[in-house]
Amino acid sequence: xxxxxxxxxxxxxxxxxxxxxxxxxxxxxxxxxxxxxxxxxxxxxxxxxxxxxxxxxxxxxxxxxxxxxxxxxxxxxxxxxxxxxxxxxxxxxxxxxxxxxxx
Amino acid sequence: xxxxxxxxxxxxxxxxxxxxxxxxxxxxxxxxxxxxxxxxxxxxxxxxxxxxxxxxxxxxxxxxxxxxxxxxxxxxxxxxxxxxxxxxxxxxxxxxxxxxxxxxxxxxxxxxxxxxxxxxxxxxxxxxxxxxxxxxxxxxxxxxxxxxxxxxxxxxxxxxxxxxxxxx
Lengths: 103, 168
Hints:
The complex is a heterodimer of chains A (about 100) and B (about 170). Chain A has about 100 residues and is mainly α. Chain A is built from three helices and no strands. The mean pLDDT of chain A is about 90. Chain B is about 75% helix and about 0% strand. The termini of chain B are far apart. Mean pLDDT of chain B is about 85; it is low at about 80-85.
């Protein structure tokens, strides 16, 4: 009745690849952050999937996913503050124009 | 079950693809919300109802609004900066890397003996009460550390976003 584990693993892998593709190809720093959120969610989905398929009555997998979500929320708050700070400095959020450290 | 899984997966992948490819950032954000909804649906399907609620509250309620504010504060909603091609016109390089990774992951998943694994026993629904108990007993130290981390992130975000204003 239920779907085998492999379906979910492939879904997680595909979602992670889509997020990676966005993080590598987008110009706008906010769009890059959105792609990173997609990758985060693919990883968290995998935590929950492995919990559902392999748990022995324990809730550890769900707890881990919960803490991962909290860390992701902290990351996105700091990341967006950085984007706004960069925008004030460069008057742009294009990641190609942030090259002060380029040798 | 399979039909629900396939429908939810289609919604999720469509949302992710649109969020990555659309040019207008606000449209990207709406597609991202669709993606978050799909993931929350998967959580409900996997009987992790508390995580599904948390996903809706935190991602759709907080992170999406945060991103919307960031988009509004940085002005360039559409136009040249919303597009693709950051690797000096070599955007195909990023797509190639991502496709290779996806292909490799599919190959390794297919080789693994976990592929055909079916769910463990009968997962009882509604474990919210148990999660609450665990959070203040076994997991109380990680919970407090997480509270400190979130406070530090909040203060850090405010400091970083304010810094340039003072210098001007």
